[in-house]
Amino acid sequence: MEVKRRAAEAMVSKLSSVSDQTRTAALCELRLMTKNDAESRPIIAEAGAIPYLTDILYSPSPIQQENACAMLLNLSISVRHSLISTHGLLDALSHALNHPASSAAFASAAAALFSLLSVDDYRSLIGSKRDIIYALVKSLSDRSTPPRSVKDALRALFGISLHPPNRTAVVELGAVPVLFSLVMRDVRVGIVEDATAVIAQVAGCEASLQAFARKIIEIFALRNCENHREFSALANSEMI
């Protein structure tokens, strides 16, 4: 264990290097350590890695932001309290979600949030960060978002919605029409089920009633238009 501790401390110290190459190499190595060795996670956290990772989430470098997000996801399995108690971490995750350097960085950031949201006491704090909810909803409205990112965003929204006071913000930030669109149009495996699960959570929110009503009216109006077009086409074909 002492050998692991010394190795972790040496690697974490490189995260403060002025050399991008040195920082990137250390991030890649630490990511593998936190992925493959559960015992190393608390050791790396105790060595002071989390504040460095928080800063690196603001990096414009895709490889650095990706590895930092993935490493936070790995750490969230074992040291959730160390993460949530780090000053500025949630704001940094919000930045990574709103300004992802890559789709992989976004997915890992959303997955890390979902892991943190497994703790009841953290849901209120995370839900108070409206920028986080906004980024998750926005990603779902973008049809170019990769399936993995969509699933991780949906799961994070589900975790946020498990805390009833958070549901109003989820609705106010436009989740309802986006979720209904996914349920109606998305054929990718697992996405309809995850979107339905979020809808079920926010359905109990008073603010969702109007949003649900508007969307249902839109659905019926769209269906009526489609039926009218089909009827007109049929009538024209019979006239010919």
Q: Which outline best applies?
A: elongated
Number of strands: 0
How far is it from the N-terminal to the C-terminal residue, by CA? 84 Å
Query: How would a textbook summarize the main sheet?
Result: none
Determine the number of helices (DSSP H or I, runs of at least 4 residues): 15
Can you give a write-up of this model?
The protein has one domain (1-205): Leucine-rich Repeat Variant (Alpha Horseshoe), CATH 1.25.10.10. The protein is built from 15 helices and no strands. The termini are far apart. The longest helix is centred in the C-terminal third of the chain and has 34 residues, at 206-239. By secondary structure, it is mostly helical. The chain has helices at residues 2-13, 20-36, 40-46, 49-56, 62-76, 80-84, 89-98, 103-116, 120-127, 130-141, 147-161, 167-172, 175-185, 191-202, 206-239. Helix 2 (20-36) packs parallel to helix 5, helix 4 (49-56) packs across helix 5 (62-76) and helix 7 (89-98) runs antiparallel to helix 8 (103-116). It is 78% helix and 0% strand.
